[in-house]
Amino acid sequence: MRFRGLDLNLLSAFDVLMRERSVSAAARKLNLSQPAMSAALSRLRDFFGDEILVAQNKRMFPTAFAERLVPEVRNVLESVNAMLSNRGQFDPSTAQRKFRLIASDYVIAAVIAPLVEKLSLESPGILLDLAAPSERSSVELSEGAADLMISPDYYITGEHPSELLFEEAHVVVGWKGNPLMQAPLTIDQFLNAGHVGIRIGSQRQQAFADRQMSLMGHVRRIEVETHSFLTIPLLLDGTQRLALMQARLVDRLARQYPIAAQPLPFEFPPMREMMQNHITRQADAGLLWLKSLLKAAGAS
After folding, report:
1. Spatial separation of the C-alpha atoms in residues 25 and 19, rounded to whole Å
2. How far is 187 from 66, CA to CA, in rounded Å?
3. pTM above 0.90?
4. Which of 39, 230, 262, 285 could form a disulfide with 90 if both were Cys (CB 3.0 to 4.6 A apart)?
5. What is the sign, positive or negative, of the torsion defined by CA atoms of 83, 87, 91, 97?
């Protein structure tokens, strides 16, 4: 398909070249031969009258013109993708489609995992590609590398539409044999105990509960920090440590681990877990279907 003399397939080639910054890597990504990918780059250079990628010290770098072109090309590709996704009614029982979701292991365990059996029975052609949150999550959403991002509201930008998935309460959790868990905690007992904290991504961002504690001025004695909510019960087992965890995740993990929970000894705000998708995907029938399933799971 051509528009004003440009083969629109070249826009996909341009997008992958900008991501990979390597002709051979882009060729592998698109399942093309290296000569075919080199030819695509040559055609892009001819059309735009720009080098697009320049070799330097055995690496390739985009030109300033190519850098400016990146967001515009990705918006075009997202719009075309949305148009093609809405060519007809979406039938989840017969559809063959992959959805890439950015979600923490907490969201996967508490909300997404219960959907898996339903999907395997009712929508066998649907594949969920689940990616961990990182400092690049918003960028991946904007670039079209992710279909949906699920995150606490303070990580949500105003660049794309978002909606509330569910609200979540936090509880104090500890090993069942922990003496501190045998009676209601006082605030001094809670703050003076050793704690397990959470840090997410390569930049070690605070999770909601840890961030909220800092905002409230409550200083805990962190003995262990982990990147995964699902490892917290293992780090509490046989110790007098405590942790703050999401109530629905504790309910699920208490079936597998010897943990107990009780309310916090002070007021603590609920966490607002949001869903966000690219603005060009608002009418995507498949994504709307998936979001409705997630909302139903989040409400249960």
Report:
1. 10
2. 56
3. no
4. 285
5. negative
The answer to whether 103 touches 130, Cβ cutoff 8 Å, is yes
Long-range contacts of 107-112 (CB under 8 A, 24+ apart): 107/150, 107/273, 109/229, 109/230, 109/249, 109/252, 109/253, 110/246, 110/248, 110/249, 110/252, 111/150, 111/165, 111/166, 111/294, 111/297, 111/298, 112/294, 112/297
Q: Give the residues of the chain that fall short of pLDDT 70.
A: 1-8, 81-88
From CA 53, how far away is CA 13, in angstroms rounded? 12
274, amino acid identity: M
CA distance from start to end of the chain = 46
- Three-class secondary structure of residue 262 per DSSP: strand
Q: Residue 288: enclosing H or E segment and its boundaries?
A: helix 285-299
Predicted local distance difference test score (pLDDT) of residue 82: 64
Measured CA distances, 126 to 7, 72, 102, 118, 123 (Å): 31, 30, 16, 11, 6
Which two three-digit tokens encode residue 82?
């949305």
- What per-residue confidence (pLDDT) applies to 1? 41
Tokens 């330097």 locate to 56
**8 Å CB contact between 291 and 148:** yes
Distance CA 275, CA 296 (A): 13
Q: How high is the pLDDT of residue 299?
A: 87
How many Cβ atoms sit within 10 Å of the Cβ of residue 292? 10
- Structural domains in the chain, CATH included, are 2-85 (1.10.10.10), 97-166+272-299 (3.40.190.10), 170-269 (3.40.190.10)
**What are the CA-CA distances from residue 196 to residues 169, 210, 226 (Å)?**
18, 10, 7
| C-beta atoms surrounding 67 within 10 Å | 11
